[in-house]
C-alpha cells in the first residue's frame, strides 16, 4: 500500500488509542443534548483524571490493494492498567491476533500475556501458528519458548550489549516512548478536539454504568495537525514544512471516519468508544474498526510478577549455546583447509553501513 495510507493508519490508531485510554467527559445530560460540541471540547481538559481501568480492545483491519492482495487483521486485547504512579506503571494484558493474507497464508498469535510491574516487562506466549512459506520452521523454533514466563529488565547491562550487537532498539532504549513523552502527547490531546460533527444520540448502559451516547462524524484536520506537531516536538523528529502540512491535509481527504463515545452520567468518564474509518487511495482501500471498553475506572489494579519468570536474554543465550554445542566435538585437523585463502583479499565483505533494510534482511537470512 502506498506511503500516505501507511502513514495515516498508525497516526490515527495512536491518537485514538491514547484517547481511548484517557478520555473522560464533562457536562450533564442536558448540556450534552443542547451543546454537544462544546461539552465534548470541555471534556478534553480532564484527560489526566483516568489513572487506572479495566480495558477491553477489539480491532479489525481489512486491506485491499490494487494488485489484488487482500489482508485481514484481527486483534483482541483484554486486561487492566494503572499509571497513577508515573515512575512505576502497572499493566496486565492478554492478546490474541490473526493476520490472514488469503493465498499468501496466515499467522495466528495465541494467548500472548504481558505484565509490567517493578519497571520490568514479563511475557508469555501460548502459541504461534502459520502456514506462510517464509515462516517455515519458525513455529517449531518458538515452540521451545511457549507457555513459559520470561522477563526483560530495561536496566540490565546485557540488554544494552545485545542492542549494540544487533543494532536495534529494545525495551528501555531512548528511542522508545517513555512516560514523559506519553503524558506530553496526552496534554496536547487535552487541548485539542479532533472529532467533528458531535451529536447527542441516546442513553445506554455499558458494563452496568448509565451512559450518554455521543456520536461524531469526521476529523478536524487542523486539530489533528496540532497533535502531530506535538508528536514531532516530543520525539525530536525532523522539522515539518508547510509543504508537508499541505500533503498531510490532502491525505486526510482520503479518510472517511465516524464513531461514538459512551459517557458515564455520574462520574462523566468514557465507558466505551467505537471508531470506524476507511482510507482510500486510487484502488487501495483500508478499513479499520476499533472498539474500546473501560470499566472499574480509577479503582485499584494489582499486578504481580510471575514467580517463575526466566531472564529472556539468558534463555536466548542458553538456546544458542545448545545449538552450537555440536561444534565442540569437531576435529578441525581433519578439515581440508585452503592455505592460500585470505579473508581480507579473497572474501568480499558487505558494506553494512550502506545496506538497505531489504539487503540487510537478505544478508541475515543467508
Structural class: alpha+beta
Element string (H = helix, E = strand): HHHEEEEEHEHHEEHHEEEEHHH
**Mean pLDDT, all residues:** 77
> What is the helix fraction of residues, given as a range?
25-40%
Number of strand elements: 12
**How do the strands line up in the largest sheet?**
7-8-9-10-11-1-2-3-4-5-6-12
* Low-pLDDT segments: 22-29, 170-175
Number of helices: 11
Q: What oligomerization state is this entry in?
A: single chain
Shape: globular
- Strand proportion, as a percent range, falls in 25-35%
What is the rounded distance between the termini?
Answer: 27 Å
**What does the main sheet amount to?**
12 strands, mixed
- Provide the gyration radius in Å: 25 Å
Describe this structure in words.
By secondary structure, this protein is α+β, with helices and mostly antiparallel strands. Helix content is 31%, strand content 31%. It has a 12-stranded mixed sheet with strand order 7-8-9-10-11-1-2-3-4-5-6-12. Strand 7 (199-206) and strand 8 (209-216) form a beta hairpin. Helix 1 packs across helix 6 (179-190) and helix 6 packs antiparallel against helix 7. The longest helix has 20 residues, at 3-22. The chain starts with a helix and ends with a helix.
SSE inventory with pairings:
Elements: H1 3-22, H2 29-34, H3 36-43, E1 52-64, E2 70-82, E3 90-100, E4 106-117, E5 120-130, H4 138-143, E6 150-152, H5 157-166, H6 179-190, E7 199-206, E8 209-216, H7 221-235, H8 242-252, E9 255-264, E10 270-281, E11 284-295, E12 310-311, H9 312-324, H10 343-346, H11 357-365
Parallel strand pairs: 6-12
Antiparallel strand pairs: 1-2, 1-11, 2-3, 3-4, 4-5, 5-6, 7-8, 8-9, 9-10, 10-11
